[in-house]
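Lesson 9: reading folded outputs for more than one chain in a single document. The general rule is that every protein is listed as its sequence immediately followed by its structure tokens, and records are never interleaved. Here is the first one.
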Amino acid sequence: MERGKKYLEAAKLVEDRPYQPEEAIHLAKKTSYVQFDATVELHLRMGLDPRHADQQVRGVALLPNGLGKPVRVLVFAQGEAAQIAQQAGADYVGADDLIRQIEGGWLEFDTTVATQDIMGRVSRLGRILGRRGLMPNPRAGTVVAQEDLPRSIRDAKKGRVEFRLDRTAIIHVPIGKVSFEEKALLENLSTVVDAVMRAKPSGAKGQYLRSAYLTTSMGPGIQLDLAPLMALASAAA
């Protein structure tokens, strides 16, 4: 892949070595060259085989400093639950009407929540929402009882991120924006890594976390030193 001049100049600042988390965050902000507030992303290569059900990883992390952008929350609910969701600040609330809109190609939302009673109907959206990471899932805390709707919507608005193992055994998670203070990015980073470590599946064998990199939108990858990264995550527990 041919890289642009700005990328190549930024890449020259990154040494071929693992960095302490604090160093990596400072460098990520320094190497961001785009004209917008770039997203800072964490990429984790796991020692897992995605083909095995007992080696899947999926979970959520509630970022203490949010994601730095408004989060549009869609809630699948009906009756009293729909009223509760609207009062709790959900951006879109509905049942069959929203299902039909999504089947028609509408996807103007960032995360979804569903009440337990409606999941039978929502499940037909699996092929549309699943590949985009938007399908409500009990393990991710996005299929909830009616009384838990306000908390779930509030968490989503604050900056709840979902993570899951992809088919190449990598987890990709945003941890904030380049405009964030370094301390805020460090806190978000440690929270995500702690959540991933807690989600270790029963079938995991050998080294669970093999490598970790920080990047920004269109920026170069910066390798993280695993030992201090793990210590940071433990301290966040």
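And here is the second record, again sequence then tokens.
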Amino acid sequence: MTKSKTVMVSAAAMVDIDNKVLIAQRQEDKFMEGYWEFPGGKLENDELPNQCLTREINEELGVDISDSCFTPITFTTFNYPNFDVIIFLYICREWEGFIHAKEGQDLKWCRPNDLFNIKMLPADIPLISYLRDTVS
């Protein structure tokens, strides 16, 4: 049996003033297209999870969180058929600029409890309960 590759991902629970969380829909050309996910992405070589998050949020959403208050809140692991993933989830309530979909993805603000009824990436599903209990 071959060991699958492990991918490390930093993701953000971007929380607005109404305690809604931002999710993004995966585009047609991506793995698991059409599923919704927390914004973020894969760590690059020699990149720390917080550095990855700052870079990815700027690339995807056009906002700067480098001087903002964001903090790690939990992590999860998931085994897809061809690879494993470790997701570091951060919570962010402040950012510089206005969020917009720089990569053409659909964005949606949702109450954490409503995320259970959305077609979320399987790896992100374990994070929903934590957000429901944390974001109020």
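What the second record shows: The chain has a mean pLDDT of 94.
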